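Meet our chain:
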Amino acid sequence: MNQDLNILHLVTQASLVVQLVMAILLSVSLASWAVIFGKLIGLRKVKGGNDDFEREFWSGRNVQELYGASERNAEAGAPMERIFAAGMREYLKLRERRVTDAGALLDGARRAMRASLQRELDTIEHNLSFLATVGSVSPYVGLFGTVWGIMHAFTGLSNLQQVTLATVAPGIAEALVATAIGLFAAIPAVIAYNRFARDIDRVAIQLETFMEEFSNILARNVGQGVTAPQGASR
């Protein structure tokens, strides 16, 4: 390969502004890959934890025992487990206050679970907007570097008596490297954002479905007049 068109040589010979653009894009690309790997691990943990708790919940184990375990495991537990604990906690508090109205009991438990769900989704979606920003902005930042580099190249060529393809090509190539790096940063971020958004939607649906099923269990137990649910069954 011609030394003048070597990628490393093009980067080192680019103007200061273009080099700054390249450095920003490379930094953003590294940050987005860190977010991508972190989100992959985090979502796998969330889905695995939710599935494990859901199996345990429907295994017929006493709900109050599950609640006690969830309270002790509040920080390390799965999102579904924390939502369940929030609903049970509010339900039991209302029962302790001698609230006997079935509608008030269920509404209180649902509100607590809905608030917990929103907190969990906010945590799961953390840094997702960063990937969206990288995917949408990086190509334009790279394009800015390319335009600036081409302007710089043509300004330098204006002092030459004779301009050939050999004299034009290195300057244009230097500028186009910025666009290439911008696309290198944007494409993985867009793909990862779409994948994670779809996975988070599935997690949200799973959690909302569990909330409705648990609300039905509470409704059945309220109708029977018991202090707290004794067991869960489909």
